[in-house]
Amino acid sequence: MAKKIKGEDGKIYVEKKPFYKRVWFIALVVIVIIVALMPKGDKDGNSTVNEAAETSTKEITYTPVDAGQMLDDLENNALNAEKTYKDQDLEITGKIYAIDSSGKYIAIDGLNSEFTISGVTCYLKNDEQKDVVASVSKGATVVVRGHVTDVGEVMGYSVNIDEIEAK
Q1: What local confidence, expressed as pLDDT, does residue 154 receive?
Q2: Backbone angles phi, psi at 12, to 5 degrees
Q3: Nearest-5° angle of CA 125, CA 127, CA 129?
Q4: pLDDT tens digits for 11-50?
Q5: Average pLDDT, the chain
Q6: DSSP assignment of 44-94, as one string?
Q7: DSSP 41
Q8: Residue of 16 and 61 predicted with greater confidence
């Protein structure tokens, strides 16, 4: 309820509450918070959490490819190489030509490559993968199963490793 105040000039003034102290504003804030915390769903009412669970349990099929073939494709036509390999799940066979000292990545090239300017940079995710890499040396043949995240004519390919196996 508004408070009545008598001013110095003798007139009566009504002092109103600030808007943030009014009941309607507090109710609106509570409703907004409740809506924000509700799980999002699709048209059928299914939660997106269920979709994420289904996606994570889906089996990935890797397409086998030689790192040398990937690099040849990149050298011959970078645009076509990007269309062919980007966002693909691949099983890449190649030899290691660089191992990062902090264990963040390895770089591989083709089995028959002599000299590589741009290669396939493979990013390690966990300690199990680092242990596999720690047990091999440059020139070792590996099979990398992962997802190609980027293709560029200067930097080559970027792959997030799901599995790595020394041959």
Answers
A1: 80
A2: -100, 130
A3: 65
A4: 888 888 888 888 889 999 999 998 888 877 655 555 555 5
A5: 85
A6: TS-BHHHHHHHHHHSPP-PEEEEHHHHHHHHHH-HHHHHHHHTT-EEEEEE
A7: B
A8: 61
Check: CB of residue 88 under 8 Å from CB of residue 147: yes
Identify the weakest region by mean pLDDT among 47-56, 58-67, 85-94: 47-56
Place of tokens 């289904």: 54
DSSP for residue 113: -
C-alpha 156/C-alpha 149 separation (Å) is 11
Closest CA to 84 of 153, 158, 148: 148
Name the 3-class secondary structure at 99. strand
The length of the chain in residues reads 167
Closest CA to 116 of 107, 124, 125: 107
Q: Which two tokens stand for residue 91?
A: 């099983």
Residue found under tokens 């020394």? 166
- Domains annotated for the chain, with CATH where assigned, are 3-57 (no CATH), 63-166 (2.40.50.140)
Q: How far apart are alpha carbons 92 and 43 in whole angstroms?
A: 40
Residue 7 tokens read as: 């001013």
